[in-house]
């Protein structure tokens, strides 16, 4: 073989190899092409043609020519080099996908909402995370004092994760600690969860932070309107510190990540968000009036994210957040004195206008997560340190609370948690992916209660003494530990099962542990049809600060005494069996062009579940301080069925959800003193509330038979309007609604509040100012369009101290500018 022929063969071979390498490692979309059934990756067809020769024509030695004698076409301009920031963004995108591979949701149901959809719905990202979640299947509304929402009729027990790391338990207050501004995507995952998800298992709120703010950009906005509401906010992000050289973009659309042997630092990605909110309806109005009395609130929230690669296979990221919320507790005018505790004289005061009651609550939260992620040779792993600090302080009205409630309690709750979480996934082959991990955390809590009461013997208002102060403080260090292992086995391209074991140990006010098996399966007989089913054994410790024991003996012979002979057993962990089955069907409805955005589709789904529980954990507000206390029912069960649908067609998208469910429980076995056992009630057959609960399966207070939500978004034109343009371009219309058949009410939850529907609408327009490529957005929203007056909670149910009404109609305007 001649040297020239050998050189041509080498050139052709190296060209083919280069094209194959670029195709495999090019854009993130190409890099994440799913594996075929044989375990290989499908690559685009690439044809490399050898230089053409005319048959029979002898090779001629080229003759030299002078350059001046030949016209040479100017070479095409080389593609613009890819900046280090773009290189870093491409590599981060690959690592984001690798992080998602650490976890699996086989056999579960997931409802996902993007940041863009959040922005497009009424009120946009001025809503809290909890309010957005009300649009997910099976999520019912509740008052701020009760946690704002319930998933599948359970109280609390919802796990929040940010970038795969579980945030530890804290305090349940009125204000949200999460701002939707930092959310890239948010998924509510329910069903029989895999073994990697423990402790809080009713629902998993999986938040992935945004990845579109690393180009030195951001926005500032102001939003406000009815009820004295104003909320300015800011967000900004970028990339700094990189010293890698720009890389030529040899293929259109191809962005090269820093090489494996890079001797440069690709830089640091960062962004932050901040928001201030003030309103005269901080928590729900206890009356149906349009304006609440004494309900002013100021809230501040901030969030920050940073990440950097310390080597080609390792990324370090830092997440930090804070929330500082202050609330006035709203008043109910005309409340009589002496009805609770028979106090008719407090510090010489014998009359009191309840509209002037002055109760306040302050809440402070800080949290942080430091993670190290690695991805190499089929292994993806993440090791994280997390911390969370909470402080809640309730300050009563000393005179007013004594006269109205018989007790005035100053409540302080503090929680400080530190822990480590490690998770890893290893793809053994095309069929098996092994996952394992652990979590260990320590939480130091302090529960302080200093109460003003009046001593008495008969306690009927005839022998009360002067007010005295009683202090009942509790401090405890609690430890939670968990370890799991599981195998995701892809038996065929259509059928996948996931089996695992999890062991959890708690050391709190009691010690307990459990080994929990998990099994789930997904079957996809057709491309657009997916069946799932699963079983999970769950172990749920109580929230430590809500399980703190009270020394009720201190209050004997006072106006704050518990029922005579009431027990005070410690709160136990909940143990449950969970069964879930469902099916999802996607129906393509055709396309008007080759662009995916011009295609229409309909998605339908149904999911059914059944849960049996021993020592079912519940919570309630059992005093004038709007803080939660936990207790157990010996037995409980929960069942329901959910229907969900989505429709997409070009610039229009809509969704709808309906859930039918019930939860019932019986026999209180902890913190029994919270239930009255002295007053027989006619509607309970002459039994006290405690006696009735011990002998009947009652509906839990947060049970709601029917819950529904729906929404729609329509976009005109698909581009921002230019300045002064008289068209609908850049305009989006939106609406959403929630429906509830009503939470339980009455003695022992034997009735329910009336059903309600709340409809919200919004319109926003995005347009460009002269000589400014970054758009300005103006929005207008109406909350509770039809001004439906409805009650979320009614005073009198188990663990319900005061009534709470939904928001009255409000008008809100916002302006936002990209920077």
UniProtKB/TrEMBL annotation:
Record-annotated TonB-dependent receptor-like beta-barrel domain positions: 327-785
Q: Signal peptide span per the entry?
A: 1-31
Report the GO molecular function annotations.
siderophore uptake transmembrane transporter activity
Question: Where is it chiefly localized?
Answer: membrane
Subcellular localization(s) per the UniProt record: Cell outer membrane
Gene Ontology biological process terms from the UniProt entry: siderophore transmembrane transport
Query: Which residue intervals make up region (Disordered)?
Result: 53-85
Q: Return the GO cellular component terms, semicolon-separated.
A: cell outer membrane
Q: Which Gene3D superfamilies does UniProt cross-reference here?
A: TonB-dependent receptor, beta-barrel domain
Keyword entries, A-Z: Cell outer membrane, Membrane, Receptor, Signal, TonB box, Transmembrane, Transmembrane beta strand, Transport
Q: How does it sit in the membrane?
A: Multi-pass membrane protein
Which family is this sequence assigned to?
Answer: Belongs to the TonB-dependent receptor family.
Output this protein's name: Outer membrane receptor proteins, mostly Fe transport
User: Which organism encodes this protein?
Assistant: Bradyrhizobium lablabi
């Amino acid at each position: 073989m001649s040297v020239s022929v050998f050189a041509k063969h080498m050139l052709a071979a190296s060209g083919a190899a280069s094209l194959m390498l670029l195709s495999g490692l090019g854009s993130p979309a190409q890099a994440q092409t799913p594996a075929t059934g044989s375990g290989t990756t499908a690559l685009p067809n690439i044809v490399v043609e050898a230089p053409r020769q005319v048959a029979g024509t002898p090779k001629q030695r080229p003759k030299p020519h002078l350059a001046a004698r030949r016209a040479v076409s100017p070479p095409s301009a080389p593609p613009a080099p890819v900046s280090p920031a773009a290189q870093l963004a491409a590599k981060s995108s690959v690592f984001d996908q690798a992080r998602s591979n650490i976890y699996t949701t086989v056999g579960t149901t997931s409802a996902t909402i993007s940041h863009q959809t959040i922005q497009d719905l009424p009120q946009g990202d001025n809503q809290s995370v909890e309010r957005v979640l009300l649009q997910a299947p099976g999520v019912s509304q509740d008052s701020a004092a009760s946690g704002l929402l319930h998933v599948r009729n359970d109280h609390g027990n919802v796990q929040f994760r940010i970038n795969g790391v579980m945030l530890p338990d804290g305090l349940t207050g009125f204000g949200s600690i999460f701002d939707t501004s930092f959310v890239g995507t948010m998924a509510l995952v329910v069903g029989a969860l895999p073994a990697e998800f423990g402790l809080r298992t009713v629902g998993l709120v999986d938040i992935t932070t945004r990845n579109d703010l690393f180009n030195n950009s951001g926005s500032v906005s102001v939003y406000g309107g009815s009820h004295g509401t104003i909320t300015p906010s800011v967000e900004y992000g970028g990339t700094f510190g990189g010293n890698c050289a720009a890389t030529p973009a040899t293929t259109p659309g191809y962005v090269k990540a820093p090489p494996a042997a890079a001797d440069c630092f690709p830089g640091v990605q960062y962004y932050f968000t901040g928001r201030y909110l003030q309103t005269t309806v901080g928590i729900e109005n206890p009356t149906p009036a349009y304006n609440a009395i004494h309900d002013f609130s100021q809230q501040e929230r901030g969030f920050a994210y940073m990440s950097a690669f310390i080597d080609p296979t390792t990324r370090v990221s830092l997440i930090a957040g804070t929330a500082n919320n202050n609330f006035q507790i709203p008043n109910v005018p005309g409340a009589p004195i002496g009805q609770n505790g028979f106090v008719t004289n407090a510090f010489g005061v014998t009359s009191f206008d309840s509209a002037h009651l002055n109760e306040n609550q302050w809440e402070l939260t800080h949290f942080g997560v430091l993670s190290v992620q690695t991805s190499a040779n089929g292994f993806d792993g993440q090791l994280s340190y997390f911390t969370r600090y909470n402080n809640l302080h309730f300050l009563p009205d000393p005179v007013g609370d004594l006269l109205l409630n018989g007790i005035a309690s100053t409540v302080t709750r503090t929680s400080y948690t530190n822990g480590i979480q490690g998770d890893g996934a290893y793809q053994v082959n095309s069929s098996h992916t092994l996952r394992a991990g652990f979590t260990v955390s320590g939480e130091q809590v302090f529960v302080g209660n200093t109460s003003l009461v009046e001593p008495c013997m008969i306690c009927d208002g005839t022998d009360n003494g002067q007010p005295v102060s009683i202090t009942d403080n509790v401090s405890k260090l609690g430890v939670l530990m968990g370890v799991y292992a599981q195998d995701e086995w892809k038996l065929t391209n259509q059928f996948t099962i996931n089996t695992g074991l999890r062991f959890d140990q708690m050391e709190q006010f009691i010690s307990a542990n459990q080994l929990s098996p998990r099994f789930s399966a997904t079957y996809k007989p057709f491309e657009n049809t997916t069946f799932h089913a699963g079983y999970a054994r769950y172990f749920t410790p109580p929230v430590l600060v809500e399980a703190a024991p009270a020394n009720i003996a201190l209050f004997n012979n006072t106006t704050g005494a518990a029922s005579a002979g009431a027990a005070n057993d410690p709160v136990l962990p909940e143990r449950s069996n969970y069964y879930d089955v469902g099916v999802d069907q996607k129906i393509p409805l055709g396309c008007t062009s080759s662009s995916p955005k011009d295609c229409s589709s309909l998605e339908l789904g149904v999911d059914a579940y059944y849960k049996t529980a021993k020592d079912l954990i519940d919570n309630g507000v059992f005093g004038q301080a709007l803080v939660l206390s936990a207790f157990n029912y010996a037995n409980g069960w929960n069942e329901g069925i959910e229907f969900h649908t989505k429709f997409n067609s070009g610039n229009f998208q809509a969704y709808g959800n309906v859930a039918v469910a019930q939860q019932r429980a019986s026999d209180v076995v902890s913190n029994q003193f919270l239930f009255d056992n002295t007053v027989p009630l006619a509607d309970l057959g002459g039994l006290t509330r405690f006696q009735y609960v011990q002998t009947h399966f009652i509906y839990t207070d947060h049970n709601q038979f029917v819950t529904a939500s729906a929404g729609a978004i329509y976009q005109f034109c698909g581009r921002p309007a230019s300045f002064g343009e008289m068209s609908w371009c850049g305009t989006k219309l939106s609406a959403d609604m929630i429906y509830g058949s009503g939470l339980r009410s009455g003695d022992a939850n034997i009735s329910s509040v009336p059903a309600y529907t709340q409809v919200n609408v919004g319109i926003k327009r995005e347009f460009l100012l002269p000589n400014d490529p970054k758009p300005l957005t103006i929005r207008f929203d109406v909350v509770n369009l039809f001004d439906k007056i409805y009650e979320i909670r009614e005073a009198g149910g188990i663990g319900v101290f005061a009534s709470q009404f939904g928001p009255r109609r409000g008008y809100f305007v916002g302006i936002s500018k990209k920077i």
